Please model this.
Amino acid sequence: MKHAFLIIILLGLMHLVAKPVDDTDIPPIEIVADPFTKIKDSRIDTVEEHREFQGIWASVDEQEMIGYYRELAIKYPQNPEYQYLYLRIQDSDVCLAQLPSLIKQNPDFYWYYRLLAICSLEVCKQDSLSFDADDPDTLILKQLKEGLLRFPEDSHLNLALFYLLKDSAEHQEISKYLLGLHDTEIITIHWLNITDYLAQEADTELHDILYDRLLEESVRREHLDPRQEREYRQRAHDIFLRRIIDGEEEQ
Model:
């Protein structure tokens, strides 16, 4: 979404008019809701823009926003974009109950897989998600892997599979999910859990690969002088190696 458009929204002024589209696209929209007022020639017609708008509208009137997207989902039941946009603002348990059938209907729709990854990870943190052979949750794991085949570079899918399987799968499989983490924000947020796992497996090579991604992003954003990159890399490697050695000595 254009920065100017976001600034206008944040000032509390908005009018949305979507161009005519067919039923396979996001349907036309027109929203006029207090405290928003009309702004000529503004529109939202992508999933990304809708996601941003939901967050902004929720800060003003969450219930009105939820009601609006509920109506869109009901009005356009065959439109995966609106099914997703309504589902993502509901509880994780609700999402996990509905997503498997929605994915079967639209197996190439990326946002369903992303939401499945986020919600399964959230429920996993509550220690309420299991994968017994006869458990219906097994379908969730299967669909996450199917999603990864379609979107192999997606960090949300790789992260979810890392958490869900790190205590049961072989390290060779888990390492593939960690190598699939390219979003440095996700790597940073989950760095402690990732390094806990890698220390347990004594995998310095994978640690260094992921740490390099953080360094490269810091340099790109000019948060780190490129001349310091080698020093930081070596220091992180030494600290991680010492952690592994200390852990082995305690056993």
Q: What stands out?
A: The CA atoms of residues 99 and 116 lie 7 Å apart. The beta strands are 16-17, 30-31. The longest strand covers residues 16-17.
